[in-house]
From TrEMBL:
One of its GO terms (biological process) is L-amino acid transport. SUPFAM superfamilies: P-loop containing nucleoside triphosphate hydrolases. InterPro entries: AAA+_ATPase, ABC_branched_ATPase_LivF/BraG, ABC_transporter-like_ATP-bd, ABC_transporter-like_CS, BCAA_Transport_ATP-bd_LivF, P-loop_NTPase. GO terms for molecular function: ATP binding; ATP hydrolysis activity; branched-chain amino acid transmembrane transporter activity. Belongs to the ABC transporter superfamily. The keyword ATP-binding applies. This is ABC transporter ATP-binding protein.
Length: 240
């Protein structure tokens, strides 16, 4: 593995008195796609939100590009070349596609805006066609494209994707995973992917982690985890 761009060591997080994360150790190397899989309620989305500072980690440390960001406020983390496409997409439904993309670009002061807009329209031609359309009127797949494109407008080094295939038709989900692979291979973008679709996520990822009840229970190469009987039994049997 390359030097870690993102590193979590012994991270715990709580909602009130309930421990959502229980001593999580995890690394994402520069230029890698790393995926975190697990059942609903395992703590995957909480982990992603904790990296972004909400909720803050109670114990342990989170290091990004050699800097300890454990206690850094969320709005400052967003300026460190980390971008997140959250679960449920959370685009601005009343804003147009173009206005949503401007919100992503605002983080770096609209530097290279035209160049970046051309780039995301090249990746997602459908968004160019819908540039003046309100985000809330797009299909689920188009909204997911917009959420990822908005994140890319800030020129991140690390892209964090939370359940990008959730609620999408299989063909559209496949298209989203294909874009993630292209961004990684062509641009060297580092991707941390939280995903319930274990088959596609592990097939795509260089490495993966399995989370159960707030703890990492398994880790290894993506293909290696795909072959593990316990992973197949828990996440892959009964269809892909």
């Amino acid at each position: 593995m390359t030097a870690p761009l993102l590193q979590l060591a012994g991270v715990t997080a709580y909602y009130g008195s309930i421990a959502a994360l229980k001593g999580v150790d995890l690394e994402v190397g520069a230029g890698e796609i790393v995926t975190l899989i697990g059942a609903n309620g395992a703590g995957k989305s909480t982990l992603m939100m904790t990296i972004f500072g909400s909720p803050q980690a109670r114990d342990g440390s989170i290091t990004y590009d050699g800097q300890d960001i454990t206690r850094v406020p969320t709005h400052e983390i967003a300026r460190l070349k980390i971008a997140q496409s959250p679960e449920g997409r959370r685009i601005f439904p009343r804003m147009s596609v173009l206005e949503n993309l401007k919100m992503g670009a605002a983080i770096n002061g609209f530097a290279h805006f035209d160049e970046d807009l051309g780039r995301v329209f090249g990746i997602f031609p459908r968004l160019k066609e819908r540039a003046q359309q309100r985000g809330g009127t797009l299909s689920g797949g188009e909204q997911q494209m917009l959420a990822i494109a908005r994140a890319l407008m800030s020129r991140p080094r690390l892209l964090m994707l939370d359940e990008p295939s959730l609620g999408l038709a299989p063909l559209v989900a496949k298209q989203i995973f294909s874009v993630v692979k292209e961004l990684n291979e062509r641009d060297g973008l580092t991707v941390f992917l939280v995903e319930q679709n274990a088959y596609h996520a592990l097939k795509l990822a260089h490495r993966g982690y399995v989370m159960v009840n707030g703890r990492i229970t398994l880790s290894g190469g993506g293909r290696e985890l795909l072959e593990k009987p316990e992973v197949r039994a828990a996440y892959l049997e009964g269809g892909r």
